[in-house]
Design goal:
There is one protein chain. The longest helix has 80 residues. 88% of the residues lie in helices and 0% in strands. The protein is built from one helix and no strands. It has 91 residues and is mainly α. The radius of gyration is 39 Å and the shape is rod-shaped.
Length: 91
């Protein structure tokens, strides 16, 4: 009979240990879920920031291209207005 009581006490210790481990696992899962949500929000905000930065860069490049085009057209117009197409000696 003494052996049976020892077995029951041993089984109770095992069950208590498993309950503690289960509580720890549940806590870790809950914390990990919160960390995952905060990481997801952080990652989305960083992606939005990158997209905005990319749009700003596109706008700057677009303006730069227009400035270059206008400079080329302006230079050509100045060339024409100063008589750049006239061949000397043929009027």
């Amino acid at each position: 009979m003494d052996n049976t009581e020892e077995k029951i006490a041993h089984i109770e210790r095992i069950v208590d240990n498993m309950e503690v481990r289960l509580r720890n696992i549940e806590t870790n899962v809950a914390v990990s879920g919160n960390d995952l949500d905060s990481f997801k929000k952080y990652f989305e905000s960083k992606l939005n920031s990158i997209e905005k930065s990319q749009e700003d860069t596109k706008q700057i490049i677009n303006r730069l291209v227009w400035v270059i085009i206008i400079a080329i057209v302006g230079g050509f117009m100045q060339f024409l207005l100063t008589g750049g197409l006239n061949v000397p000696g043929t009027s």
